[in-house]
Structure formats: structure tokens, C-alpha cells
Design a protein that fits this description.
Elements lengths: L3 E4 L12 H6 L9 E5 H7 L3 E3 L7 H10 L3 H9 L1 E6 L5 E4 L4 E3 L13 E3 L5 H16 L4 E8 L8 E10 L3 E2 L15 E2 L1 H13 L8 E5 L4 E5 L12 H11 L1
Parallel strand pairs: 2-8
Antiparallel strand pairs: 1-12, 2-12, 3-7, 4-5, 5-6, 8-9, 9-13, 10-11
Helix pairs in contact: 3-4
The protein binds guanosine-5'-diphosphate (GDP) and manganese (II) ion (2 copies).
Length: about 250
């Protein structure tokens, strides 16, 4: 298989209300079933998900966590506001976001955000954002593409952050090998590959984390186009999540 990966150059600083599909199509073209990978940072900016810290009023709980971790209590409050569950509150905030992703600080970022006191939240519904971008690209071009929204995430057990998929459309986020054979004819029983994360990880290498200004990556020739939408199947159901259970159990001792 031969696939090509390229970044789209000269994307401006994205502002609230910007039409991502149009900005992209002024600079590059699409082929049927391309994979359009975009950083959550610019999706959030286009959706106006920036807030100045000064308008956040911390609760007592936020003050306590902030003191423990020696961080700004308004930032803690913003994280709590985006979360439905706190798995760890120290030495960092590990939370489940309203959208179901378990991550540090609910994915709230300072980096690559204008204004020193502004913070950027993840898109409110990243699957919907991905679907909106997919539809908009289709409306302009008549081409069907897969869309993956990425964020840089830390990982349990391993150092080194990597790109992770936090929303998708036009692609099934897993590739199921169960029931197929290995080289020796044995039936695979467990392998269900998280391809949306693998693609996000590779795209993230090209984006980088700094001032590269490369928030959109196109992957061509790797056809995973599928009508299914949504990242939820990457999030382990609570009943099967033994690590989460262990964390909650250790906290209550
Ligand atoms: P995250 O991984 O989604 O949190 O985003 P990062 O802050 O790591 O940025 C990913 C890429 O997008 C990097 O190449 C940044 O320089 C770039 N980037 C972030 N914001 C903008 C923007 O408004 N315009 C452009 N052109 N690039 C941006
Ligand atoms: Mn981020
Ligand atoms: Mn990043």
C-alpha cells in the first residue's frame, strides 16, 4: 500500500466563526475518501471555545484542589465545569469530560492560544464538529472524506505524549480483526485495532506541538471511509474498565 501524508501550509490564526472547510479549500484540494485530520485546538478556536480566566469564579472545591496542586483555582474550576467525574485530583486532574474521554485537565490548553490569561476548551461535541466539517467539505466539493479531530494526550504507563482521536466522522474508529486468521491459521480473538488513534498519532507528528502552524493534515491513499460516525466506541465501557475501578478503589482506602 502507498499512502501520502501532507500538511496544509499558510493556514491563518483561526478565529471564532471561521469556516474551516473554506479556509482549507482555498489552499488545497480533496480527493474522494481522503482522511482529513485536524487539531482540536483550531476546531475549538473556530467554535469560540476560548474563555478568559478572569471570568471564572472558583468554588471551595476548586480552591482546595488548586492549593494541593499549586495551580490557579480558576483553571481548576474550568476543568471541573467541563467534567462529569474526577478520577484523580492530585498531582494532576484526571477527569472524564462531558463527552466521555478520560484525560488530564479535560483537555483544556494554554498553548497556541492568544492572550496570556485565555484558556481553550475542547470542542463541546467533537463528533458533531467532525460531522459538520465533513458535511461542509462535501457541500463545497462533492467529495466524501473521513474527518478525525485530534488532541495531544499523555498516556498512562508511558512517557511521551501522542496524538489521540477525540472526534470523528466518515470513519469507524476501530478495525476489528476478531474472527480473522493469523499467519498460522489461528483465529484472532482479541485484536480490535484503534485506527483513529493510530492515524491521529501519525498526523500529530507532522503537526508538531509548537509554532509550526500546521493544524490540518491530509492522508491520501489509506481508504478507511465508512458511513459510521463517532468516537464513543474507543471509550471503554465503565463495566469493563478495570483501571478506572482500581483508581477509584485506591482513592477510597
Ligand atoms: P492540540 O494538539 O490540538 O492541542 O494543538 P497544538 O497546540 O498542539 O497545535 C497543533 C498544530 O496546530 C501546531 O502545528 C500548531 O502550531 C497549530 N496551530 C494551533 N493553532 C493554530 C492556528 O490558529 N492557526 C494555525 N495555522 N495553526 C495553528
Ligand atoms: Mn490540546
Ligand atoms: Mn498538540
Amino acid at each position: 500500500m502507498n499512502a501520502a501524508v501532507f500538511a496544509v501550509e499558510n493556514i491563518p490564526l483561526i478565529k471564532k466563526g471561521d469556516d474551516i472547510a473554506r479556509i482549507f479549500l482555498q489552499r488545497a484540494e480533496l480527493h474522494e475518501h481522503d482522511i482529513f485530520v485536524i487539531s482540536s485546538t483550531v476546531v475549538s478556536k473556530s467554535e469560540g471555545r476560548i474563555i478568559p480566566l478572569e471570568i471564572v469564579i472558583p468554588t471551595e472545591k476548586a480552591n482546595q484542589i488548586a492549593m494541593k496542586n499549586k495551580i490557579d483555582s480558576r483553571f481548576v474550576q474550568a476543568v471541573l465545569d467541563e467534567s462529569t467525574e474526577i478520577l484523580l485530583d492530585s498531582p494532576f486532574l484526571l477527569v472524564r469530560t462531558k463527552n466521555g474521554s478520560i484525560c488530564v485537565n479535560a483537555g483544556i490548553d494554554h498553548s497556541n492560544v492568544e492572550g496570556c490569561d485565555n484558556i481553550l476548551m475542547l470542542p463541546e461535541d467533537p463528533d458533531k464538529s467532525a460531522l459538520d466539517i465533513k458535511r461542509s467539505l462535501f457541500n463545497y466539493t462533492g467529495k466524501n472524506v473521513s474527518v478525525i479531530i485530534t488532541d495531544t494526550n499523555g498516556r498512562a504507563f508511558r512517557t511521551g505524549q501522542t496524538g489521540a482521536a477525540i472526534g470523528c466522522a466518515g470513519i469507524k474508529p476501530t478495525r476489528d480483526w476478531r474472527g480473522t486468521k493469523d499467519l498460522f491459521g489461528r483465529i484472532l480473538e482479541v485484536k480490535n485495532e484503534g485506527i483513529a488513534d493510530e492515524i491521529a498519532g501519525f498526523a500529530n507528528i507532522i503537526m508538531g506541538e509548537g509554532n509550526g502552524g500546521l493544524p490540518i493534515i491530509i492522508i491520501r491513499g489509506l481508504d478507511f471511509y465508512n458511513e459510521s460516525n463517532g468516537i464513543q466506541e474507543l471509550y471503554r465501557p465503565e463495566s469493563e474498565d478495570v483501571i478506572r475501578k482500581a483508581i477509584l478503589k485506591s482513592r477510597s482506602i
